[in-house]
Amino acid sequence: MGLIAKSIKGTQDLLPQDSYQTQYVEQTMREVAQAYGYREVRTPVFEQTNLFERGVGGTTDVVQKEMYTFTDKGGNSLTLRPEGTAGAARAFLEHGLFNEPLPQKMYYFTSCYRHENPQAGRLREFHQFGIECFGTASPAADAEAIALANSVFDYLGVTGLSIEINSIGCPECRKNYLAALRAYFSAHVDELCETCRGRLERNPMRILDCKSPVCSAIAKDAPTCIDYLCDDCRDHFEKVKSYLDVLNIEYTVNPRIVRGLDYYTRTVFEFVSNQIGAQGTVCGGGRYDGLMGELGSDKQYPSLGFGLGIERLLLLMQAQKVPFPEPPTCDIFIGSIGEDALKKAMAIADTMRADGVSAEYDVVGRSVKAQMKYANKLGAKYTMILGGDEIQNGSAVLKNMKDGSTQEVTLETIGDDFMSILMNDSLKSLESAAQSFDLNGGADLIGNILEGKNNG
Fold first, then answer.
1. Which residue stretches of 157-193 are H helix?
2. pTM of the model
3. Three-class SS of 404-419
4. Residues near 222 by beta carbon (within 8 Å), at least 6 away in sequence
5. Is the peptide bond preceding residue 103 cis, with omega within 30 degrees of 0?
6. Residues 302-326: what's their mean pLDDT?
7. How far is it, in rounded angstroms, from Cα 163 to Cα 56?
């Protein structure tokens, strides 16, 4: 009989041997976001469909073609979230966070769902790191959001990204721009794809984002929004650029960036790579000053944010051979011979785990030889075997699996003693690294620490 089921097209499993990479990336993002004053928010995986229809925009491909929408048993139309901003904005309004000090800074890790053609870097279930900054119209906030994303890439060691920015103006100055776009694309209406012909009257800016080669070629010569900015929007954009200059962040103005969601206003930006194929945008975002009104708020709260695709980021890191930390391994495997020894191993491991040590023992009933073979496969740093003699004598032999050295340890104090052994190993590793890189006396400093430690 074959497998009962396989994973659904466009989804993928994250296996235990690979999950440490994602955990490392997420932890780095979490630390950077917190350094910028952001706090975590978690929202439901599904929302009322009209939240995305009104928030994301009815003229977008996301709403028209890609959403997973279903009717629940109560007759309500629900949709799996295709992106993170609308849900976070809904939470901001529903829970009255506008009564808290503004801006409200939030970050999240979220799974998103879009029914589109799966390919490298584009899945039907994908994961994002996102930030939302609610309640500020300042261009300084735009620059800070770009700086935050840039910091994530810097800390992870990702290089070669180009930062592209644009301003798509406010609703007022966009009126003239949309009129110019309609006039331009109307001259090519017979060449446009069926979807873009429908966009021509509703929202011609969406044509600029069309993936059709024919529409993309036509759009290359279309008017640019920057040429139609009002004085306020132009001033805002100039300040964003000046603040990026202050932060020493290099960028390029790309007047063709419009982003794929309708809620954007003024600043939009993308971090783009040419190393992961067609899906080169790793992070994208911008300002959405009118979103709260679209969601039913009587008062507008100017806001901004970005979404960073974790799968695409991992593809890029692998393409660049960016080093990851070594995956965590077992600190000690305690082998046992007989029932009494197993109970002692369990008790010792329990004490060690309470101190943060990764300790394992046999839960299968293997022979000692098989237990040691298993410990080796786990990558255990140390092993110790308990039997009747060890329990009677209150001591056992601790083996360093890296160099084969052994030492006798007392079972009564093994918890504290083993923590000291691990600490000593860590300091030796630091000393070795300092010697390898010649860190301006770092080796001597760490050597002095070791000497002082060994002298009590």
1. 171-186
2. 0.86
3. CCEEEEEHHHHHHHHH
4. 181, 184, 185, 207, 208
5. yes
6. 94
7. 24
